[in-house]
């Protein structure tokens, strides 16, 4: 069925639930299409002018259409309450903990790129405070916080480890953006003034495009320049070690 629908490559642990819902919805829509088209053809023949020279102002007398509508509503309810909601609940309940050793990043969207920050070897970010925001400190970092000295900044690239949970703390510097990685089956709006957590677990090595799924201005298309880079643990450790430097994230403005 995935090949018939030409679904994009799946490269995340929870993505199967998303694809299953998409497949079930397409099956329902296909059945409805066939059913309503068959009825349309039947109506063309059954109710043509020759067969009905005199208009019938009473109309249909049976309740078959009502039962069909009820069956469709029940099917939709089953998909919502039996597939969509439980899938969402499983994903929420499975939010990674420290015991899972997740890769944690902060992503601050802006027109028109993704600002990415890693906590460095100490595992902690520098403090952020809206009162610290200024022309030379647009993200509000506390530049006196020692926790930020080893933070790692990057632009448009998110590095993570295969088969290891990723937690993204998402926000926006200016307008509403939407963080979307199709192969990971994740989409989340980035809203100014809010920090919204999302998580996923990549299951395949490779480089995947990050899109903005919300029209955010004239340069919206350039948001597709973001990349999610899924690496082995060894390659990730080597990369993060090469990026740690004095000044950390507070030097990246």
Protein architecture, described:
By secondary structure, this protein is an alpha+beta fold. The chain is built from 4 helices and 10 strands. It has helices at 2-5, 15-46, 64-93, 233-243, and strands at 103-110, 113-118, 152-155, 157-161, 166-172, 177-181, 186-190, 196-200, 206-212, 226-231. Strands 3-2-1-5-8 form a 5-stranded mixed beta sheet, with no helix packed on it. A 5-stranded mixed beta sheet has the order 4-10-9-6-7. A hairpin with a 4-residue loop joins strand 6 and strand 7 (186-190). The longest helix is centred in the N-terminal third of the chain and has 32 residues, at 15-46. It is elongated, with a radius of gyration of 25 Å. It starts with a helix and ends in a 10-residue tail after the last helix. The model has no long low-confidence stretch (mean pLDDT 88).
Layout of SSEs?
Layout: H1 2-5, H2 15-46, H3 64-93, E1 103-110, E2 113-118, E3 152-155, E4 157-161, E5 166-172, E6 177-181, E7 186-190, E8 196-200, E9 206-212, E10 226-231, H4 233-243
Helix pairs in contact: 2-3
Shape: elongated
The main sheet comes to: 5 strands, mixed
Poorly predicted runs are none
Count every helix, treating DSSP H or I runs of 4 or more residues as helices: 4
Structural class: alpha+beta
Which percent range fits the helix content?
25-40%
Please give the alpha-carbon distance between the first and last residues.
46 Å
Strand ordering within the main sheet: 3-2-1-5-8
> What is the β-strand count?
10
Q: Report strand %.
A: 15-25%
């Amino acid at each position: 069925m995935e090949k018939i629908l030409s679904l994009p490559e799946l490269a995340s642990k929870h993505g199967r639930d998303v694809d299953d819902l998409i497949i079930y919805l397409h099956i329902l829509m296909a059945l409805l299409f066939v059913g309503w088209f068959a009825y349309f053809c039947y109506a063309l023949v059954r109710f043509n002018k020759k067969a009905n020279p005199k208009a019938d102002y009473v109309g249909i007398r049976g309740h078959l259409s009502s039962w069909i509508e009820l069956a469709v509503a029940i099917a939709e309810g089953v998909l919502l309450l039996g597939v969509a909601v439980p899938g969402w609940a499983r994903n929420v309940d499975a939010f990674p903990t420290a015991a899972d050793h997740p890769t944690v990043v902060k992503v601050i969207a802006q027109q028109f790129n993704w600002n990415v920050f890693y906590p460095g070897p100490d595992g902690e970010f520098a403090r952020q405070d809206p009162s610290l925001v200024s022309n030379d400190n647009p993200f509000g970092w506390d530049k006196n916080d020692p926790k930020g000295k080893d933070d790692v900044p990057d632009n448009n690239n998110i590095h993570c480890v295969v088969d290891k949970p990723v937690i993204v703390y998402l926000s926006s510097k200016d307008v509403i953006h939407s963080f979307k990685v199709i192969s990971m089956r994740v989409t989340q709006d980035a809203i100014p003034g809010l920090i919204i957590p999302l998580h996923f677990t990549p299951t395949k090595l490779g480089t995947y495009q990050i899109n903005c799924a919300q029209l955010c201005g004239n340069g919206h298309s350039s948001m597709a320049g973001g990349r999610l880079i899924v690496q082995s643990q060894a390659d990730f450790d080597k990369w993060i070690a090469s990026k740690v430097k004095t000044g950390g994230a507070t030097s990246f403005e």
